Amino acid sequence: MLAESASGHALVMDGPPEHGGRNLGVRPMEMLLMGMGGCTEFDVLLILRRGRHHVSFCEVELDAERAETDPKVFTRIHAHFKVGGRGLTEKAVERAVKMSAEKYCSASIMLGAMAEITHDFEIVEVE
Fold first, then answer.
1. Angstrom distance (rounded) from CA 107 to CA 35
2. Are 64 and 103 in contact (CB under 8 A)?
């Protein structure tokens, strides 16, 4: 399956062979999770940079559980942020993660209507 966005970008999605797919792309449910990760990571970077914090990078690793029966929705999602920069404070990173989760990340807020979403973070000092 080739998915094309309104902004003109495309990506390949597929399913596993045991379900009729050819394993040539990301699974649609993986794409939902990846979208949430990208959305919240972008927010955290933007919030910190707007606050004039020196941020070198931000990564988010998502761990998710799905229901065992159809529809196999996400039931739990944990986001672990790894934020690197100079002089970052726990207070600033915690605020950025919270603002993304509660106000700005549409994907997290939408998935949060169905799944329990938790967050934590670590700060990496970069010179």
1. 7
2. no
Q: Which two tokens stand for residue 69?
A: 């029966």
Rounded Cα–Cα distance for residues 41 and 100 (Å) = 8
HEC string of 2-39 equals EEECCCCCEEEECCCHHHCCCCCCECHHHHHHHHHHHH
Q: Which of 113, 125, 112 lies closest to 79, judged by CA?
A: 112
One-letter amino acid for residue 91 of the chain: K
Architecture of the domain defined by 27-125: 2-Layer Sandwich (3.30)
Q: Going residue by residue through the chain, which has 127 residues, state the pLDDT in tens, using 9 for 90 and above.
A: 999 999 999 999 999 999 999 999 999 999 999 999 999 999 999 999 999 999 999 999 999 999 999 999 999 999 999 999 999 999 999 999 999 999 999 999 999 999 999 999 999 999 7
